Amino acid sequence: MKPSFDYIFMNLATDLSKRSHCVKAHVGAVLTKDTRIISVGYNGPPAGTHNCDDEWPDTGCPRDSKGSCSLALHAEENAILYAVKNGAKLDGATMYTTLSPCLPCARLIFSAGITQVLYKNSYAEYKGLLSDEGVDFLNRFGVEARKFEEAESIL
After folding, report:
1. Spans of all domains in the chain
2. pTM across the whole model
3. How confident is the model at residue 98 (pLDDT cuts 50, 70, 90)?
4. Is 149 tagged catalytic?
């Protein structure tokens, strides 16, 4: 049996998450369209600035008022920004991410024209929130956002 593209792209997102320099969380994202990779990203500071695991190996970078990283871009942001920087068209694209999008990333995903998001783990569970606000936002406004089910991924 062959692995599905969903399985391949989610595994790539998982592998990319291992590139993260974040001390607190490792998140990867893959943007695709028509079974082709448009862009990839993982969470971390903007290229050429610093690496949190080098500067703050024990504590990670300073936290913002909500307890989130104050210096890094999220994996979804990095994937979208790289795609746009290189002229990719994102209308109708699919995003695979290892952590469901937070609300700010969900707004960016929606605005970029991405129409489907598959995620491996819940941001709400990771952050101790009542619901996945980003997933709720995306589904409310017509972007199919759902948890990736590995059992369905082999053809």
Report:
1. 5-150
2. 0.90
3. very high
4. no
